[in-house]
Amino acid sequence: MLRRLRETGPVLLVPLAWTFATAAHLELLATRTVLIGHVVMAALLFAFAALSWQDMQAHPVLRAWLAVIVVGFGVTLVGAYALATGSDPTLTGGTVLGWMLIPALALLYTGQVLPREERAWAYTVGGALSGLGAVVFLFGRPLVALALVGVGQTLGILVAVVKY
Fold it and tell me: How many domains, in total, are found in the chain?
């Protein structure tokens, strides 16, 4: 049961995270709620990494995604710190940007490593959308950026869950 949850849960959690980030950007959520979200996300990332560490050593793509989870854990902790202390908004923006770029790189890598018959194109498209979203974010269009990243990363995780 736990293994199945680890294998399929991200297909719900990825779009949920980007929906949550969009709601936070629209100021529909209180800072405390966003902080709690970061703490919950950090706990989930830590648990996922701890429970999946051994399994994710089996393939270069899985190792890349384990790196995303581990680095993402740190990025999420930075975001939680920024929210808890009321730090400069640049730090929270950097957290969002980190979660745009780190998975974008892993999606592009996945698209290059996997054979064509394993829908490698979908990972490449997902990575490109996520990377484009990061650029759009830097140019001050956060809602467009969040939509691009949400679609790109959801595409990648959806294909991974359906295919594997």
Answer: 1
